[in-house]
């Protein structure tokens, strides 16, 4: 248990019958009249839904222990992604729904943060940007280069993104894992 006066960004609370909510932001408010309160923005750990919630100052809230570990993605085992803990070499099978959009950017050997609560995997988090190779893309047409247009390209993971026309098959690029945006070439 913690008090609303102890809230910090990233802290995970157990509210509404055991649902896990991560504190995105909080603000202590002391109006001229009436009791102080805490205004928070909370994100549901499983669904990603964001809500605003207000607590009276000093209210007790239940905190949840979320264990975040860096693990290396090893391979796919049917519908499961297999991660290896780099300290203990234990393998962890993670369901596709817990991996979410991170699956679009995972290749063998990538390190990701795996968050668990009481043995259940909540989510898998990748770095903000990853480097991947373009598996396939159409060649850019000579006259198109001046327009700054984009074309579809398939990454080595099979995920499709938009890249500038000058990018060719086999090039290594940097990709934003949150938006699937092309961020630039990687010089080897």
TrEMBL record:
<dbReference type="InterPro" id="IPR001059">
    <property type="entry name" value="Transl_elong_P/YeiP_cen"/>
</dbReference>
<dbReference type="InterPro" id="IPR020599">
    <property type="entry name" value="Transl_elong_fac_P/YeiP"/>
</dbReference>
<keyword id="KW-0648">Protein biosynthesis</keyword>
<dbReference type="InterPro" id="IPR011768">
    <property type="entry name" value="Transl_elongation_fac_P"/>
</dbReference>
<keyword id="KW-0963">Cytoplasm</keyword>
<dbReference type="Pfam" id="PF08207">
    <property type="entry name" value="EFP_N"/>
</dbReference>
<dbReference type="InterPro" id="IPR012340">
    <property type="entry name" value="NA-bd_OB-fold"/>
</dbReference>
<protein>
    <recommendedName>
        <fullName>Elongation factor P</fullName>
    </recommendedName>
</protein>
<dbReference type="InterPro" id="IPR013852">
    <property type="entry name" value="Transl_elong_P/YeiP_CS"/>
</dbReference>
<keyword id="KW-0251">Elongation factor</keyword>
<dbReference type="InterPro" id="IPR014722">
    <property type="entry name" value="Rib_uL2_dom2"/>
</dbReference>
<dbReference type="GO" id="GO:0003746">
    <property type="term" value="F:translation elongation factor activity"/>
</dbReference>
<dbReference type="InterPro" id="IPR015365">
    <property type="entry name" value="Elong-fact-P_C"/>
</dbReference>
<comment type="pathway">
    <text>Protein biosynthesis; polypeptide chain elongation.</text>
</comment>
<comment type="function">
    <text>Involved in peptide bond synthesis. Stimulates efficient translation and peptide-bond synthesis on native or reconstituted 70S ribosomes in vitro. Probably functions indirectly by altering the affinity of the ribosome for aminoacyl-tRNA, thus increasing their reactivity as acceptors for peptidyl transferase.</text>
</comment>
<dbReference type="Pfam" id="PF09285">
    <property type="entry name" value="Elong-fact-P_C"/>
</dbReference>
<dbReference type="Pfam" id="PF01132">
    <property type="entry name" value="EFP"/>
</dbReference>
<comment type="similarity">
    <text>Belongs to the elongation factor P family.</text>
</comment>
<dbReference type="InterPro" id="IPR013185">
    <property type="entry name" value="Transl_elong_KOW-like"/>
</dbReference>
<feature type="domain" description="Elongation factor P C-terminal">
    <location>
        <begin position="130"/>
        <end position="185"/>
    </location>
</feature>
<feature type="domain" description="Translation elongation factor P/YeiP central">
    <location>
        <begin position="68"/>
        <end position="122"/>
    </location>
</feature>
<dbReference type="InterPro" id="IPR008991">
    <property type="entry name" value="Translation_prot_SH3-like_sf"/>
</dbReference>
